[in-house]
Amino acid sequence: MDKAYKLLSLQKRISHSKAKSLIDSGLVSANGKRLTLARTLLEPSTNFQVQEVAPLRIIAQSGDLLVVDKPAFLESYAIQARFKGYELLHRLDKETSGVLLLAKSKSQKALEIIHAFKARKVEKTYYALVSGIVPESSTINAPILTKKDKSAKSKVHKDGLPAITHITPESIVGKKTLLKVQIETGRTHQIRVHLAHIGHPILGDSLYGGANAARLMLHARAICVLGESFEAPMPFSLC
């Protein structure tokens, strides 16, 4: 037995630091199961699979607004760093893909969209692949409390902030459901926490009890703000 990062380093002929970084980023699976700890002890015969991060795609760029299709495993702030002079107008979790908005820093467009987010005048549509059968549409109205240390984790709690999530089943295959999800609020990990709370965690969500998958199966499909709509194609399907 040896530590996962050392075995990966040997097999892929990369440095220990690179191997650790790949595992910490959620890009490595061992014998078909995603690794979450670089120091996990594994057999030398372990078969590793390493995912590649999909390319970043620009959906629209007009005036002071920039809209991109964020790939899974790329931090929102890393995208902001690629476009000097632009600021994030909202964020997506590292493993969540989809529509992400940026604008020229301190521009009128940035101020207008930030105000729209605060006023809950932005329509956001997500798709999530979850465990179990969700037979009908429903609304999850449960307050969320977030604790932040080195990382953030949230939970449904009576002392939390108001959080409202609407879900609609799009298709069901076996014991998995593809959900259309719309949120009225934007709490940390809101969709992930709410779906886990009702017993249907998102596949690949190791933080909130989701079954093993290559990635967190959550995608920001569309955003409508200030009369404009932007969409990002689905990177996964229910199969």
From TrEMBL:
Domain Pseudouridine synthase RsuA/RluA-like span(s) in chain numbering: 87-197
Reactions that this protein is recorded to catalyse: a uridine in RNA = a pseudouridine in RNA
Pfam families recorded: PseudoU_synth_2 (PF00849)
Coiled coil: none
An annotated Gene Ontology molecular function: catalytic activity, acting on RNA
Listed GO biological process terms: enzyme-directed rRNA pseudouridine synthesis
Family recorded in the similarity comment: Belongs to the pseudouridine synthase RluA family.
Protein name (record): RNA pseudouridylate synthase
Lineage summary: Bacteria, Pseudomonadati, Campylobacterota, Epsilonproteobacteria, Campylobacterales
